[in-house]
Amino acid sequence: MRYQNWLEKNIADLSNKTYVITGASDGIGLFSALQLASRGAHIIMASRNEAKNQKAMERIYRDVPHAKLTYVHYDQSSFTHIDAFVKTMKQHHPKVDGVLLNAGIIMPPKDQMTPEGFPLTTGVNAINVYYLLREWLGFLDQHNQEVKLVFVGSYSSYNTRLNDLEELLNPRLSRMQQYAKSKLALAMFHHVFQMNLNLFDFPVLDHIHALLVHPGLASTNITHSLPNSLAKFVNGWIRFWSQDAEAGALSLTYAMGHPFTVNGSFYGPNGPGERFGYPKKLTLRPHFSQGSAKFTYALGKYLKKEFSHVRSE
Ligand SMILES: NC(=O)c1ccc[n+]([C@@H]2O[C@H](COP(=O)([O-])OP(=O)(O)OC[C@H]3O[C@@H](n4cnc5c(N)ncnc54)[C@H](OP(=O)(O)O)[C@@H]3O)[C@@H](O)[C@H]2O)c1
After folding, report:
1. Which CATH superfamily is domain 4-304 in?
2. From the CB of 102, is ligand 1 less than 6 Å away?
3. Directed axis angle between helix 128-143 and helix 79-92, to 10°?
4. Cβ(37)–Cβ(60) under 8 Å?
5. Is any ligand 1 atom within 6 A of the Cβ of residue 108?
6. Minimal-distance CA residue to ligand 1 atom 42
7. 123: Cβ below 6 Å to ligand 1?
8. Edge-to-edge strand order for the sheet containing 266-269?
9. CA-closest candidate to residue 152, choices 89, 198, 106
């Protein structure tokens, strides 16, 4: 298995840990599942496509024959699907030591919307992550001693800004802006959870540790929404200049599995331009926190007002 020495040196013995990984059927989520499982963790693979997830499990068993893997259906594209997932998790898997919030998409056609009416990228990557946490985090906090929440951001969030909720929901955003702002929203969620700020419609949380990562650039299937020839070109370019999915997973694995990664920290690759490399601690950008409380509070209020009939309990 690649990185075995590094994993043994940097990742704790995780034999008594259970981690949930959203979007574990492919890409860096799949390889993070493999790497954490290789250190003994029980991985709950929260994925939307069972057949595809089965193949992902087979890939993991190839390198880690005794991996402890469980599949739970998870589709981040609608509140209804998230409700079903949260219900299953509360009933069958109350003990969770960490959640790797990895599922994400980039640049689907602009007219694709979530059933709640959000542009698909904004909904899947940001708003529905917030909704998942609103529905689940209080329960996790009550039933566990310590829960690591690892938000998977992107360095596309370095060069954008989010001054208010309207800016995230602006229908005139380009597809790339939707992606970058959705990832900045995750960085802002990271800030409010790590500071344990008063959040609208959330209970007080005592056991949550929020961490942020970005994987650099990794050649994965995330480009599948791009026209075929462009996806091939982009992936070829990334592979040449950067890394594959297995290498891209290292920052995620490190944030979750290193024994001393703590609330509030941010990790990404140590190579040039943070494109590739082994994980290192990064500096949080000022705009990840500026206005994050106001933004998150506004989102909470908006969801409560527009979707008050929707609650998973
Ligand atoms: N690759 C990069 O260079 C890069 C850079 C920065 C950040 N990231 C972030 O890293 C994360 C993983 O991306 P990746 O590059 O590994 O892409 P990927 O290979 O396309 O994997 C994405 C995963 O998310 C899942 N997913 C997508 N929509 C979902 C939904 N509605 N519900 C549940 N799961 C869903 C996919 O499921 P299916 O298998 O069913 O499609 C897949 O398992 C994303 O959040 C991405 O934004 C990636």
Report:
1. NAD(P)-binding Rossmann-like Domain (3.40.50.720)
2. yes
3. 10
4. yes
5. no
6. 23
7. no
8. 68-73, 42-47, 18-22, 98-101, 147-152, 208-213, 266-269, 279-281
9. 106
Residue 312 scores a pLDDT above 60: no
> Is ligand 1 within 6 A of the CB of residue 242?
no
Of 150, 65, 70, which Cα lies nearest the Cα of 102? 150
- Is residue 77 a contact partner of residue 118, using CB atoms and an 8 Å limit? no
Structure tokens at 115: 């059933």
Q: Is the CB of 81 under 6 A from ligand 1?
A: no
Q: What is the pLDDT of residues 175-233, one digit of tens each?
A: 999 999 999 999 999 999 999 887 888 889 999 999 999 999 999 988 777 777 777 77
Domain ranges for the chain: 4-304
C-alpha span between 5 and 276 (Å, rounded): 18
Q: Whose CA is nearest to atom 43 of ligand 1?
A: 23
Which tens digits make up the pLDDT trace of 26-80?
A: 999 999 999 999 999 999 999 999 999 999 999 999 999 999 999 999 999 999 9
Residue 115: CB within 6 Å of ligand 1? Answer: no
pLDDT in tens, 126-145: 999 999 999 999 999 999 99
Q: Is 196 in the pocket of ligand 1 (CB under 6 A)?
A: no
Alpha carbon of 204 to ligand 1 centroid (Å): 30
Residue 108 scores a pLDDT above 60: yes
Q: Among 20, 60, 75, 102, which is best to mutate for testing ligand 1, by the most ligand atoms less than 8 A from CB?
A: 102
